[in-house]
Amino acid sequence: MFEQKSKSLPPVLPKHIGIIMDGNGRWATKRGLPRTAGHKQGAKTFGDITAYVRDLGIPYITAYAFSTENWKRPKDEVDAIMNLLREYLKDAYRFEKENVRVHFLGDPAPLDRDLQEMMADITEKSRNNTGITVNIALNYGGRAEIVEAARRLVQDVRSGLLREEDITEEALSARLYTAGQPDPDLIIRPSGEHRSSNFLLWQSAYAEFIYMDVLWPDFKPEHLDKALWEYAARNRRFGGI
Ligand code: IPE
Ligand code: IPE
Ligand code: MG
Known about the structure:
Elements: E1 16-20, H1 24-30, H2 35-56, E2 60-67, H3 75-92, E3 101-105, H4 113-126, E4 133-140, H5 142-158, H6 169-173, E5 186-189, E6 208-211, H7 221-233
Parallel strand pairs: 1-2, 1-5, 2-4, 3-4, 5-6
The chain binds 3-methylbut-3-enyl trihydrogen diphosphate (IPE) (2 copies) and magnesium ion.
One 3-methylbut-3-enyl trihydrogen diphosphate binds at residues 20-22, 64-67, 70, 193, 195, 197.
């Protein structure tokens, strides 16, 4: 728990919010626009909501931008999403000076070389920033992440860095993309779907899930406030009484 700035918000805020940014396609289709127009508006919403979360003093946000399963979509749509990412990354260089730490969750290998380079560069340049950490889950899958962590554990045991009896929850957590970060307390999914779609499977063990009917491109700070109030009213027991 920590102090928060706004007076109109609940006294207890999450330290880490996850957002499954869903509903872009439906938002566009409803307006007779191509699905890519929804992704464009969704990217704008992402920028606005990140800025808002930062103003609230919440230290971590993770946004699900592209899943390991999203490659199944038509190439045109995937290309359009990657181009929006390219625009976002060009702009993200300013975060270095704005004390925002940017981090990517997922396997960058299948992405275009220029995107990979920008991602690595921004991560490196913002590494020591102490303001909000913005995690962007890109080519991210919760199962793939756990498999990768298991592989690293095996390597570390083989190389003598780790003993088999030291394979613990902490040791596995330390090999996830979110190593060193607190687990998400709250996961918000707009768009009316009630599922995790492979998002932060390990880290969300005790997250509060809030599902909202609004489509992501229509998501406003008021929707976040509403989720924060609902979060504050929940009784988190972590298995206790
Ligand atoms: C989320 O919106 C964006 C990505 C998954 C990349 P969708 O594109 O899934 O929008 P809907 O669910 O089809 O409306
Ligand atoms: C989840 O949304 C992935 C992202 C928001 C990036 P999807 O639209 O891909 O999820 P499903 O297919 O409805 O489960
Ligand atoms: Mg969707």
